[in-house]
Specification:
This protein has one domain: Electron Transport, Fmn-binding Protein, Chain A (Pnp Oxidase, Chain A). The relative contact order is 0.20. The chain has five helices and 14 strands. The longest helix is centred in the N-terminal third of the chain and has 8 residues. The strands form four sheets. The chain has a seven-stranded antiparallel beta sheet. A three-stranded antiparallel beta sheet has the order 3-13-14, with no helix packed on it. Strands 1-2 form a two-stranded antiparallel sheet. A hairpin with a 5-residue loop joins strand 4 and strand 5. This is Flavin reductase family protein. Its EC number is 1.-.-.-. InterPro entries: Flavin_Rdtase-like_dom (IPR002563), NADH-dep_flavin_reductase (IPR050268), Split_barrel_FMN-bd (IPR012349).
C-alpha cells in the first residue's frame, strides 16, 4: 500500500467512495478508437467554456487520448449502467461490445444513447500524480432525452431518488 499524505491508497479510495459522481464515457478517435468510463468529469469555466476529466496515465486509453485533438464526452442516464460497465472493462474492444455509436466530427466516436454529449477540442493535459487532468473546450453538444443521470457511489452504479416536495422548495 502506498501512502498518500498519511493515508494509504486503499484508505483514500474508501473515503472518496462516499462522494457521489455522475458517470460519463469519454471517447477519442484512433485505430481502434478508445473510450473509457469517467466519474471525474466537471465543468471548469463558462468564459470560455471548458470542461475537465481525469485519466490514469497507465490506462490502455491514455496513449491514444494523449495524442487526440478532439474527444467526445457522453453523460449517461440512469438506465445506462451496462454502457458504463462496458467502457470500464479493461482488455476488451469496448466499441465492438457496444454497437450503438457512430463517427462524429473529427472522427470522434459518438454514443447514440447518451442523455447528452459534448464534442470537445482538447486544450491541455496537466500531469497530476499518476493521472492526467484533461482540459477541453466544448465545440458542439446535444441532449437527446431528459433521463435522470447515472450516479457512481460507494463502488456501485445507482440513480437519484425522485425529488420530494421538501427538497424542491429548499432548492428554489
Amino acid at each position: 500500500m502506498r501512502a498518500v499524505n498519511g493515508l494509504d491508497a486503499d484508505a483514500f479510495r474508501t473515503l472518496l467512495r462516499r462522494q457521489a459522481a455522475t458517470v460519463t464515457v469519454v471517447t477519442a478517435p484512433g485505430s481502434p478508437p478508445v473510450g473509457f468510463t469517467a466519474t471525474s468529469f466537471t465543468s471548469v469555466s463558462l468564459r470560455p467554456p471548458l470542461v475537465s476529466f481525469c485519466l490514469d496515465r497507465g490506462s490502455s486509453s491514455w496513449p491514444t487520448l494523449e495524442r487526440a485533438g478532439h474527444v467526445g464526452v457522453h453523460l449517461l442516464g440512469e438506465d445506462q449502467y451496462e454502457v458504463a460497465r462496458t467502457f470500464a472493462t479493461s482488455g476488451i474492444d469496448r466499441f465492438a461490445a457496444h454497437t450503438g455509436w457512430r463517427d462524429g466530427p473529427h472522427g470522434v466516436p459518438l454514443l447514440d444513447s447518451a442523455v447528452a454529449w459534448l464534442l470537445c477540442r482538447v486544450t491541455e493535459h496537466v500531469t497530476a500524480g499518476d493521472h492526467a487532468i484533461v482540459l477541453a473546450e466544448p465545440l458542439h453538444g446535444q441532449h437527446t432525452h431528459s433521463a435522470a443521470p447515472l450516479i457512481y457511489h460507494m463502488g456501485r452504479y445507482t440513480s437519484l431518488a425522485p425529488p420530494s416536495a421538501t427538497v424542491e422548495r429548499q432548492a428554489a
